[in-house]
Structure formats: C-alpha cells, structure tokens
Amino acid sequence: MSDMDRSLVSVIIPTLDAERTVGAAVASLQGCGGIVGEVIVVDGGSADRTTEIAASSGARVIRVARGRGRQLDAGAYAASGPWLLFLHADTRLDEAARQSMIGYVAVSENQRVAASFALAFDERHETLVNIGRAANWRTRTLSLPYGDQGLLIHRDLYNRVGGFRPLPLMEDVDLVLRLGRHRLTMLAGQAITSGRRFVGRGRRRSARNILCLSLFLIGVPLATVRWVYYR
Q: Of the residues 50, 104, 133, 139, which has the fewest C-beta atoms closer than 10 A?
C-alpha cells in the first residue's frame, strides 16, 4: 500500500479559545497506522494561543467566521482525504478508538455508514460516569451521537446528505438525523472528553441538553432552542 493510499483520513477540529486542550487532541491522532493524512484546525476567532499551539503540534490552521457548523463544513471543504473525522478540541481518541478507525476505513462497504465512538471523560467523577452512560445508551439505542463522540464519515456520504449546516447550535444532531439510523454505527474505543464544563453542574447541564434536544426534535424554532440553551 502506498503512502498516498494510507493517508485516508482528514481530521477536522473546530476551535475557539481552546489553548488548554487542542494540543492533546492533535497529539492523540498519532499512532493511527499512517492513515491520518492531515489535521485541520478551523478557528473561529480565538483570542488565546489556540492557533499557535495547533500549528506547533503539526496541524494546518484555517480561520473562518465563528460558528461550529460553519467551521466544521469549512474544514471538510478544505480537506483532501476521502475520509473525514470531525473531532472536538477538548476530545482525544484512545488507543482502541484509533485501532477501530484503522480497521473501519479499510473496508469499502463502510463508506456508506458513518461512525462515532463511546463517550468517556478525562476524570473519574460520579456525575461524569452517569453522563457517559446516558450518552452511550442514547447512541446505541437511538442512534443519536453528539459531536463530542467524534464522527467518522466518508466524503461521498458527507456530501450526499448535505454536510454540516451553519446552525447556531445542534449542528451535530441535525447531521445525524439526516444520516438516519441505518447509516450510523458505534465503533469500539472511546472519545475521551474534558469534564470541566460538567463537574458541579452536570445534572442541570444534562437536563438542559435533554430539553433542547427534545425541542429541536419536535420542530421548535432554532432561535427558541438557542435561547433556552444559553439562558
């Protein structure tokens, strides 16, 4: 297999003031058997050292207007690989997830199905354990992974369903709903995410997320969902 054939995956990481975590996210993509051809950090206007750290870690940095959906799609447009891995800046893949990705992209039939990973957190806390269990149940049972679980998708499928849209929030749910349950699977391994934003207010944050998801699913205008989310 040539080097070109092995560099199958373009990783896209949207950032905004993520200097604490982006370096670890980029570093976690090493040891992927040579299949990661590039890491693209799409910055939405960071005021800290995010872009400097990303570049020094080996990522290619592009800058676009703020908005995660817009940033993710801009990264997909700039990417050169046939496979796209969308990963949050505070998330890193463990060894099992990296090995799962290597095996997954080697099977041509998987080009018709997108994949995510199990959610885990970078510290052991009862609240975080419960949130992780709920997220993984939601993914396995309802086929509704969130963006912090990563999304591995072939470019052809991404383009076929219309990619990420420039929504103010729920861009991840919007995309997986268009994919549908028959085009989603969950791989072995974990996407390990920072738990800082959950500890101390995990129950309130989870309840808010469930409420916003429910409102979005029943067709409440996104402006209203956004107001509830940020209130």
A: 133
